[in-house]
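Record pair follows.
FIRST:
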Amino acid sequence: MKLKLVLMSAIAVGALSMPAYADDDGNDSAVTGAAGGAVTGAIVGGPVGAAVGGVAGAVAGAAIDPPPRKVITYVERQPVPSDTVVIEEPIEIGRPIPQTVVLTPVPDDPAYAYAVVNNQRVIVDPQTHTVVEIIR
């Protein structure tokens, strides 16, 4: 009975979160974050955990939107510097790179900058150094 209540709560939170966070451009990262957060929260904390997890997941999913295609294209076309930066931390979307990494701003979109780290081009938020895209 308790499991059924938890599952129903998670489904309800996920369903209610979808219309509120869906993007016009088809990007559903917030929706995915809300659903994943709700399920995780339900498993860990029951119905209250589902509600909290759904909101936290939606916020996290909405916070890391991929950059526009023009920014990705610009970064792809830039020459790779001969002295690339090497760091020990894993490079992951949503995680910051060290503040010591020198960023190159994207001229047409100051909301983004890039660097070549561990032989990978990474697009970051220049204010937080958070990785928003890894170009492979």
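SECOND:
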Amino acid sequence: MLSTVQLPTHLEQHSDAETQKLLHTLVRQAVSQQAYANAIQLITCLITQEPKNPNNYNNRGLMYYHCQHWPQAMADYNRAIQLNSNKDKVYTNRAKCNLALGRWSAAISDYDSAITINPYNIKARIRQGVLFRALKMYNDAIVCFGLALFLGKLSAHIYGERGRTHQLNGHWNCAIGDYQRALELLDTSPNQLLEKQIQSWISEMLS
């Protein structure tokens, strides 16, 4: 059940542009407080103001996703894509929703669409690689991570994920090499959570 959002008094006295700006501000505040149900209601108000803006549907889809309301999130992502099919982030978001619903093939297809639209969408490449790995499609996962590395961003993360893929595929020497490279990169750009994850994978392999 969504709680009631208290909109500012005399909101109707503002111009449409002022109302939209105010609603965007309130949405950001709600998201920063993880008040996702309130954010949904605020974005619904924005959709009333801007019914053909795909960003509003994508953003509301994200809020539904955080609330684990998968069908509502999927409906909003589909609507966003109907309004503009050239936004890679919407496909990436819909892929995550498809994963939550257990629709592996649909998620892979969405990641493909995101990457086709924006070949530099590193997160889509990484997540698709992780999905391939979960499905034990190790060679496809390695290809994903290799292409992501070629683009030169989030390298420590990618080496770590590729190392895990080699490990699960039984290629321990390759795994160690990737883990070491990831840890070397983390020396200059620390990420404690990632380092802890990689160290746990190494310990699992050596135990």
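COMMENT: The chain has eleven helices and no strands.
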